[in-house]
């Protein structure tokens, strides 16, 4: 039996994780669930999964939930303190990090300091603080198990001697606008950007997939997870999202992981690691299927090239790019900025940043805060 805390239980990954738990035949138990404001769904999840603790980041949401759950012996905590307590608790074996955004960095570092295994979906945490996270994990002997589908695929293709890797190939669907020209991309609406061709995901990552910033974040995520130079991380457009990524070894052999676009598979893989559990989920059927592959269009989708430049520069710059992107994507979701403004503002914030290389949590959070404020100023100026 493995005991979990799920950070972001009411979100897309969080809900699918609970579905995996319900199919795990008693091998997974929930200690705590955490979210921000979605009280109605958290109440439903609490009643169904009976965790010891539920946490709402938002304090009014926490007091609302306290009233709704007064008939149950479930502790209702709040704020970042409540989230951190939910991951360091003695009973917890694995923390599923499925918060959206850099907010997951501190709880992830706290969970690692407490010796927990991390099932990591929350890629912004690695983009902003990957050096801190991976060195803390090494120091504490903690496993970081990737949940992000491409990184799970790479992890599943790793052999005993990872030093024989020549490169990894991150596949990308190309998003809803694959093949569009820069001019046509100026006409994108929020409704169109929220329609991912293959995956049902949360709003932020769906917009990031449309600009290809998601793939840029994943390049930086892979750099940290697999200790790879950026020259050894290639992106290949694969519109069908059947091959979730590939590893090319120094003898020229390429291993790939395939599956239906169903996040329960990488989630279950991480939670059952190092075994593979059976499940009743629909199987991949390749009969009659055509798989195609294309070069990324770095011109039309500048976010990908920016992420490579930012990742190579390192220091506090990745945290700045990520923070600016979080702010501008939220503004786009609120229809406050145009689609082209997303990458234009992120690029401008990155260009103005004085990069620091002494990476501690304070410098990362300061850079993150500066970037958020600067992005907000540019949005109001747009
Ligand atoms: N969805 C997917 O298929 C994939 C997602 N990922 C990554 O996984 C992470 C989660 O993505 P996804 O599930 O789509 O996101 P969603 O937006 O669907 O869910 C986000 C979750 O985090 C909670 N949350 C958001 N902000 C805060 C906060 N400040 N404090 C506490 N809780 C917060 C939300 O709570 P509430 O509901 O109360 O707002 C919700 O439970 C992201 O980093 C994403 O990039 C990676 C690969 C695939
Ligand atoms: C399911 C998952 O892992 C997402 O990151 C997805 O891969 C996004 O698809 P894109 O390839 O379009 O960015
Ligand atoms: Mn992914």
TrEMBL record:
Superkingdom, natural source: Bacteria
Residues the entry annotates as binding 1-deoxy-D-xylulose 5-phosphate: 123, 149-150, 173, 196, 209, 214-215, 218
Domain 1-deoxy-D-xylulose 5-phosphate reductoisomerase C-terminal: residue ranges: 144-226
Domain 1-deoxy-D-xylulose 5-phosphate reductoisomerase N-terminal: start-end pairs: 4-130
EC primary class: oxidoreductase
A GO term, aspect molecular function: 1-deoxy-D-xylulose-5-phosphate reductoisomerase activity
Record-level GO BP terms: isopentenyl diphosphate biosynthetic process, methylerythritol 4-phosphate pathway involved in terpenoid biosynthetic process
Keyword list, A-Z: Isomerase, Isoprene biosynthesis, Magnesium, Manganese, Metal-binding, NADP, Oxidoreductase
EC number assigned by the record: 1.1.1.267
Pathway in which the depicted protein is active: Isoprenoid biosynthesis; isopentenyl diphosphate biosynthesis via DXP pathway; isopentenyl diphosphate from 1-deoxy-D-xylulose 5-phosphate: step 1/6
Binding site for NADPH: 10-13, 37-38, 122, 124, 202
Binding site for Mn(2+): 148, 150, 218
Matching InterPro entries: DXP_reductoisomerase, DXP_reductoisomerase_C, DXP_reductoisomerase_N, DXPR_C, DXPR_C_sf, NAD(P)-bd_dom_sf
Cofactor: Mg(2+); Mn(2+)
Function description: Catalyzes the NADPH-dependent rearrangement and reduction of 1-deoxy-D-xylulose-5-phosphate (DXP) to 2-C-methyl-D-erythritol 4-phosphate (MEP).
Record-linked PANTHER family: 1-DEOXY-D-XYLULOSE 5-PHOSPHATE REDUCTOISOMERASE (PTHR30525), 1-DEOXY-D-XYLULOSE 5-PHOSPHATE REDUCTOISOMERASE, CHLOROPLASTIC (PTHR30525:SF0)
Protein family: Belongs to the DXR family.
UniProt name for this protein: 1-deoxy-D-xylulose 5-phosphate reductoisomerase
Gene: dxr
